[in-house]
């Protein structure tokens, strides 16, 4: 579902993406409006589902999560009960930062953040004990070149 946004809405969203902790006064000043119209637009965008939860972005490496793996999964099972079990297993694992179902040769890709290779192996062993997987390939990210949560508005 697409929501109609005007240029002021987009400016507000760009500012919120850049730093959601800014005051309404600061955002209003930066987008060339006043506080009340900015607040009303933010409220409407929240109600429409354009703006979701506000959170804080943590530095994974500073917290000791030095290894980022991209895990490619192929499955020979595509039944609803297998998928439900697989999704439950993924959602219960805090190491899984992202999970996507794909078109093509690979069925799923996961972004997994762990402290080290040993922690990845523990994650892997736990996952395959919960659900049968045909093939798993893990790729270690050597360097994060770009990471953003900002949409190109």
From TrEMBL:
Which Gene3D superfamilies does this UniProt record tie to the protein?
A: 3.30.70.920, Winged helix-like DNA-binding domain superfamily/Winged helix DNA-binding domain (1.10.10.10)
- Keywords annotated in UniProt: DNA-binding, Transcription, Transcription regulation
In terms of Pfam families, this protein maps to: AsnC_trans_reg (PF01037), HTH_AsnC-type (PF13404)
At the top level of its lineage, which domain of life is listed?
Answer: Bacteria
Domain HTH asnC-type, by residue range, is 5-66
Which GO MF terms are attached to this record? sequence-specific DNA binding
Gene Ontology BP, a term: regulation of DNA-templated transcription
**Cellular component terms, GO, for this chain's entry?**
cytosol
Q: Name the InterPro entries on file.
A: ArsR-like_HTH, AsnC-type_HTH_dom, Dimeric_a/b-barrel, Tscrpt_reg_AsnC-like, Tscrpt_reg_AsnC/Lrp_C, Tscrpt_reg_HTH_AsnC-type_CS, WH-like_DNA-bd_sf, WH_DNA-bd_sf
The family database entries (PANTHER family) matched by this protein are listed as: DNA-BINDING TRANSCRIPTIONAL ACTIVATOR DECR (PTHR30154:SF17), LEUCINE-RESPONSIVE REGULATORY PROTEIN (PTHR30154)
Q: What is this protein called?
A: AsnC family transcriptional regulator
Q: What species is this protein from?
A: Kangsaoukella pontilimi
């Amino acid at each position: 579902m697409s929501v109609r946004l005007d240029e002021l809405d987009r400016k507000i969203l760009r500012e919120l993406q850049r730093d959601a902790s800014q005051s309404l006064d600061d955002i209003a000043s930066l987008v060339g409006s006043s506080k009340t119209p900015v607040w009303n637009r933010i409220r409407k965008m929240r109600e429409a589902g354009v703006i979701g939860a506000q959170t804080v972005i943590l530095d994974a490496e500073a917290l000791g999560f030095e290894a980022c793996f991209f895990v490619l999964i192929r499955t020979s099972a595509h039944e609803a009960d297998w998928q439900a079990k697989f999704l439950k297993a993924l959602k219960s694992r805090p190491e899984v930062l992202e999970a996507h179902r794909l078109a093509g040769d690979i069925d799923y890709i996961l972004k997994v953040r762990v402290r080290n290779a040993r922690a990845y192996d523990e994650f892997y062993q736990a996952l395959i004990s919960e659900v049968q997987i045909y093939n798993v390939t893990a790729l270690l990210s050597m360097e994060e070149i770009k990471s953003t949560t900002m949409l190109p508005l």
